[in-house]
């Protein structure tokens, strides 16, 4: 028995040895993931796809690091580990990184950082920060839903963080403008669930909304979509997805308000590769904000959709964001803004 | 009236899993083993059932009610096996039951995610389609009121839950084994002196709790999601609260589970109930009600608490 164990131990050591790092200079391009994995159909996966694609085309070595703890200390340690492993550019997707990156960017001035979606970050000269115009894709989603013929809309956000609030306000504004064009009025139910994962509470609330007449709910917050999609499937109603195109997750998904994480990471890495890295800058990618069209729309015409999209791209619509909310509005309640054709009920 | 039917079916969504898991906890605690591993057992039991449903739906093995029943049996078996770890630590090794329970709670989600990642193309989440809702039971749904309440838009699990409730009551109060379970939880030394094999009875109690908690996990997740991420959002702990609230007695546990179910439902649907929404109260109030009510009721009923006297104390023959 002892002999067997010893030989197994030796064999496993041998196998581990084979799997080790054969690169001498480590991995140049590193992705540190936020909570979740690189197969989360969301932030991490989008970022990883861009890193992989860049690595393959440029021939540079690349690797992802999944932190054991996603608190500030855990993220900082993982960033340091990636740099220790030879990383010269580190991609950090998600607002969760803000505090860790504030310190890491100063500790490692020779390393370039690409920050994704971190509104509170003040980038130093070795960091470029990418933000998204969530209000744009939210606007398109709301506009499209009303043009499709829905007059009872719902919005469920994960938590009242800037990105979610921007999606929500854009959604209402889009619905408002479409209602104005159609000379009608629209009701929007609006809530923050306080979590980014599924729960029976969210399922119950979504069903209650649908039963009270809501036609379509914009599910804006990671895993809560599981409970909202399940409610919509049961009652045969519609939903709108978020971040990535979620139409294959459920037949109820009308369209998805997209966030161009892949495009942002690609742009950042290419700038790094061509020595045009814009350190210290905050770049808002507006054209990356979009919805998945044609989705499952039946009544919305392509002409209508491209017309309004063109207006957004030309900047002729003054989009509201979380900054337009009163600073005393700590609940981030958009019903406090004035809407001409929309009645917002905030729960 | 439609609103009442809707609220009732939503209430059952919360009540039935809480009821089944709390009844499981009752068997364990009344045999003398505190089981705070209910959460972990729910997680791993649901994982087993959902994993089988996923496999079966991808390969087309079976579907509909037979699939639901087989998955339920798998959840029960896996829950029962998983609880053996707790039983072994608590009964044979005489360990601190809170610690071994916590260990199971920590092990369960990690184990589930690991198995899913290794076997399902590196994805930690297990997808499934909920095809188990019964739109209408023929004939029975025609009964006025009761037909609408119980036999339309329902799940088989509702009836399984009620069946388990009746069987549990009968088993714990009307059978010899039930009496032995209660004896081991109150005074194991006296039970031992009367010739009862205390470790064996306690094993039975813990495994029964594992079986029921495993089933409860599957019943919890099916109606509310389209994929499973090895979490039951603290419902195992909530079931423990229901067990205490229900004073370790089957019918009172049922009442407590129903109370929690009604309160949870009102907290998340009040906006769609005209009378409640016209009150204009902030939503936090409704979400607080179940917990505040629990505190108040426990304060008033703590005097006649019927907690099993020997629960949580490892049985040692040599101490008297």
List the helices and strands and how they pair.
The complex is a heterodimer of chains A (347) and B (320).
Chain A: H1 2-19, E1 29-32, H2 43-58, E2 62-65, H3 72-84, E3 89-93, H4 98-107, E4 112-116, E5 127-132, H5 134-147, E6 152-157, H6 162-182, E7 186-192, H7 200-211, E8 216-220, H8 224-235, E9 238-243, E10 253-258, H9 261-273, E11 282-285, E12 290-291, H10 302-314, E13 342-346
Parallel strand pairs in A: 1-2, 1-3, 3-4, 4-5, 5-11, 6-7, 6-8, 7-13, 8-9, 9-10
Antiparallel strand pairs in A: 10-12
Chain B: H1 2-30, H2 38-59, H3 64-92, H4 97-119, E1 126-127, E2 134-136, H5 146-150, E3 152-154, H6 156-174, H7 176-186, H8 188-193, H9 198-221, E4 227-228, H10 235-245, H11 250-269, H12 274-277, H13 283-301
Antiparallel strand pairs in B: 1-4, 2-3
Characterization of this structure:
The complex is a heterodimer of chains A (347) and B (320). In chain A, strand 1 (29-32), helix 2 (43-58) and strand 2 form a beta-alpha-beta unit. In chain A, helix 2 (43-58) runs parallel beside helix 9 (261-273), helix 3 (72-84) runs parallel beside helix 4 and helix 5 packs parallel to helix 6. Chain A is 41% helix and 19% strand. In chain A, the strands form 2 sheets. Chain A has a 7-stranded mixed β-sheet, with helices on both faces. Chain A has a 6-stranded parallel β-sheet with strand order 2-1-3-4-5-11, sandwiched between helices. By secondary structure, chain A is an alpha/beta fold. Residues 17-23 of chain A have low confidence and may be disordered. Chain A contains 10 helices and 13 strands. By secondary structure, chain B is mainly alpha-helical. Chain B has one domain: ABC transporter involved in vitamin B12 uptake, BtuC (Orthogonal Bundle), CATH 1.10.3470. In chain B, 69% of the residues lie in helices and 3% in strands. In chain B, helix 7 crosses helix 9 (198-221). The model of chain B has no long low-confidence stretch (mean pLDDT 91). Classes of the chains: A alpha/beta (347), B mainly alpha (320).
């Amino acid at each position: 028995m002892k002999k067997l164990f010893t030989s197994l131990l030796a064999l496993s050591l041998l196998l581990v040895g084979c799997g080790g790092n054969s690169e001498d200079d480590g991995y140049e391009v590193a992705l540190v993931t936020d909570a979740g994995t690189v197969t989360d159909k969301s932030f991490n996966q989008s970022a990883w796809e861009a890193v992989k694609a860049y690595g393959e085309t440029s021939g540079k070595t690349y690797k992802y690091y999944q932190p054991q703890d996603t608190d500030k200390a855990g993220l900082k340690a993982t960033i340091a580990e990636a740099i220790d492993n030879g990383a010269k550019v580190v991609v950090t997707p998600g607002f969760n990184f803000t505090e860790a990156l504030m310190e890491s960017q100063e500790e490692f001035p020779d390393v370039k950082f690409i920050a994704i979606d971190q509104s509170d970050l003040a980038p130093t000269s070795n960091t470029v920060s990418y933000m998204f115009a969530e209000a744009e894709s939210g606007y398109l989603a709301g506009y499209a839903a009303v043009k499709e013929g829905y007059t009872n809309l719902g919005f469920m956000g994960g938590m009242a963080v800037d990105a979610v609030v921007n999606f929500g306000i854009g959604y209402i504004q889009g619905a408002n403008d479409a209602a104005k064009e159609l000379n009608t009025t629209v009701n929007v139910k609006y809530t923050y669930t306080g979590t980014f994962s599924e729960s029976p509470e969210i399922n119950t609330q979504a069903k209650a909304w649908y039963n009270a007449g809501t036609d379509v709910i914009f599910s804006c917050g990671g895993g809560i979509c599981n409970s909202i999609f399940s409610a919509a499937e049961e009652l045969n109603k519609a939903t709108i997805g978020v971040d990535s195109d979620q139409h294959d997750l459920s037949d109820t998904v009308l369209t998805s308000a997209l966030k161009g994480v892949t495009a942002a990471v690609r742009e950042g890495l290419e700038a790094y590769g061509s020595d045009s890295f814009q350190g210290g800058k905050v770049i808002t990618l507006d054209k990356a904000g979009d919805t998945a069209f044609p989705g499952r729309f039946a009544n919305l015409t392509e002409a209508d959709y491209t017309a309004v999209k063109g207006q957004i791209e030309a900047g002729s619509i003054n989009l509201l964001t979380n900054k337009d909310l009163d600073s005393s509005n700590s609940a981030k309640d958009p019903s406090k803004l004035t809407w001409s054709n929309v009645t917002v009920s905030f729960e | 009236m439609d609103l009442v039917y809707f609220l009732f079916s939503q209430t059952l969504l919360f009540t039935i899993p809480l009821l089944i898991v709390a009844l499981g906890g009752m068997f364990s605690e009344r045999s003398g083993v505190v089981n705070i591993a209910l959460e972990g057992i729910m997680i791993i039991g649901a994982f087993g059932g959902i994993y089988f449903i996923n496999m079966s739906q991808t390969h087309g093995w079976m579907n509909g009610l037979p699939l639901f029943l087989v998955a339920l049996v798998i959840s029960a078996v896996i829950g029962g096996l998983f609880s053996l770890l707790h039983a072994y630590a608590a009964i044979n090794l005489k360990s601190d039951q809170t610690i071994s329970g916590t260990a199971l709670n920590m092990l369960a989600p990690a184990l589930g995610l690991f198995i899913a990642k290794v076997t399902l193309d590196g994805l930690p989440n297990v997808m499934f389609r909920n095809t188990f809702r019964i739109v209408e039971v023929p004939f029975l749904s025609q009964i006025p009121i009761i037909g609408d309440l119980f036999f339309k838009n329902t799940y088989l699990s509702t009836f399984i839950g009620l069946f388990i409730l009746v069987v549990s009551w009968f088993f714990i109060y009307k059978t010899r084994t039930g009496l032995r379970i209660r004896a081991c939880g109150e005074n194991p030394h006296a039970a031992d002196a009367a010739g009862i094999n205390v470790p064996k009875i306690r094993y039975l109690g813990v495994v029964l709790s594992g079986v029921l908690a495993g089933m409860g996990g599957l019943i919890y997740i099916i109606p509310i999601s389209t994929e499973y991420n090895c979490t039951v959002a603290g419902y195992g702990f909530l079931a423990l609260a229901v067990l205490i609230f229900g004073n370790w007695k089957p019918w009172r546990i049922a009442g407590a589970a129903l109370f929690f179910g009604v309160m949870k439902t009102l907290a998340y649907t009040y906006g769609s109930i005209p009378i409640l929404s016209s009150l204009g109260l902030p939503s936090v109030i409704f979400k607080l009600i179940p917990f505040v009510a629990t505190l108040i009721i426990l304060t008033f009923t703590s005097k006649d608490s019927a907690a099993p006297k020997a629960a949580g104390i490892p049985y040692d023959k040599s101490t008297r």
